[in-house]
Automatic annotation (TrEMBL):
Annotated signal peptide: 1-32
Official protein name in the record: L-asparaginase
Similarity comment: Belongs to the asparaginase 1 family.
Pfam family, one: Asparaginase_C
Asparaginase/glutaminase C-terminal domain segment(s): 258-369
PANTHER family assigned: 60 KDA LYSOPHOSPHOLIPASE, L-ASPARAGINASE
Keyword Disulfide bond included in the entry's annotation: no
Length: 373
């Protein structure tokens, strides 16, 4: 597999811009004019990055009351950028505040706002790439959602931090620097949405948060990182995968349909599933045991759901491996969908988007999960 390394052109450009300013300030006549004409085009060639801030620990400040406490959402997007030395040499960055929430409060409204703003920015050619600052709890969900609804080949990079600004081991500034570096890289074209955390680049389908507090909290257990980044280089180790993206439309009424996740465990009965049916869920995702298993009572409740036209998806509560069709559960007979490598939270999102797009037939839903439609 070939590994590409890029030298950051932007850094050189910025150095050149400094030269230009120095030359003009010195008023060195013809020489200055010469530098000016060469460098003006270099300066305008700097990639334009639209930074959309949504909140999270990356915009938090350490709380003096305790060593681990912090208040999220204290620092706005523009201030975040100002706090990262050298970031202005990578790209010309325009920051906008979309929301200011801990990502445990991320919701449909903000997702739709993000998707619409990104579409608009690319359509109007306002930006060459987008960086989204986000809390880490649900960053994988937002990345997966956007990857399914955005249609541009310009890069969209999500980034967060595990430690707030001002803490002894703040990881936000480096993560943000590297996110802009990836967004500005010509190699990122055609790769859709990505997540940058702790020197790694991950794809939305595979990334998941695997640790509550560690700086190295993210992994893509079924695939590995798609690339690596440090302040000197961006390296992709996987080719761009386009087939796994289903181009879905945003819901016309501005709301995603309700899809519930039910967590499987020993001694499980069917009551939570029956409650979901009674509460009007349009889909049910089971975070199953092992390869998407659950008790006989739970399966019987899922049969009742499928009989009502509710989309039933078997996923797993494990962090790695695939849930395949018809292994221990006869999905063909029962009309169920196997989530393959999508974890419950992503299976839920894809089901929501499919139902919103009028896709409820288990065969078609399964195709979308496989990325084969
Ligand atoms: N609860 C925070 C959030 O997701 C955690 C973080 O950002 O690391 O917004």
């Amino acid at each position: 597999m070939s590994i590409n390394t890029i030298n950051r052109k932007a850094l050189r450009l910025c150095g050149s811009a400094a030269l230009l300013i120095a030359a003009l300030a010195a008023g060195t006549g013809a020489q200055a004019a010469d530098v000016s004409s060469q460098q003006a085009s270099a300066v305008t060639a700097m990639p334009r990055v639209l930074l959309l801030a949504t909140g999270g620990t990356i915009s938090g400040t350490a709380d003096p009351r305790s060593a681990i406490g912090y208040n999220s959402g204290n620092v706005k997007g523009q201030e975040l950028v100002r706090g990262v030395p050298g970031i202005d040499k990578l790209a010309s960055i325009n920051a906008e505040q979309i929301s200011n929430v801990g990502s445990q409060d991320m919701n449909d409204k903000i997702w739709l706002q993000l998707a619409r703003r990104i579409d608009e920015a690319f359509e109007r050619n306002e930006a060459d790439a987008v960086v989204i600052t986000h809390g880490t709890d649900t960053i994988e969900e937002t990345a997966f959602f956007l990857n399914n609804v955005l249609h541009s080949d310009k890069p969209v990079v999500l980034v967060g931090s595990m430690r707030p600004g001002g803490s002894t081991s703040a990881d936000g500034p480096n993560n943000l620097y590297e996110a802009v570096e990836v967004a500005a890289s010509p190699q990122s074209r055609g790769r859709g949405v990505m997540v940058v955390m702790n020197d790694q680049i991950h794809a939305p389908r595979w990334i998941t948060k695997t640790n509550t507090t560690a700086v190295q909290a993210f992994a893509s257990p079924n695939a590995g990182a798609i690339g690596y980044v440090d302040p000197a280089s961006v390296r992709f180790v996987m080719p761009a995968v386009q087939s796994a993206r289903a181009a879905l439309s945003l819901p016309a009424n501005g709301q995603l349909p309700r899809v519930d996740i039910v967590y499987a465990h020993s001694n499980m009965d069917g009551r939570q599933i029956d409650h979901a049916i009674a509460d009007g869920a349009k889909g049910i995702v089971v975070a199953g045991e092992g390869d998407g298993d659950m008790s006989k009572e739970a399966l019987a409740a899922l049969d009742r759901a499928a009989a009502k036209g509710i989309v039933v998806v078997r996923s797993t509560r494990l962090v790695s491996g695939f849930v395949n069709r018809n292994v221990e559960v006869d999905d063909d007979k029962r009309g169920f969908v196997a989530s393959l490598d999508l974890n419950p939270q992503k299976a839920r999102l894809l089901t929501q988007l499919l139902v919103a797009n009028g896709v409820t037939d288990p065969f078609k839903v399964q195709q979308a999960f496989s990325g084969t439609w």
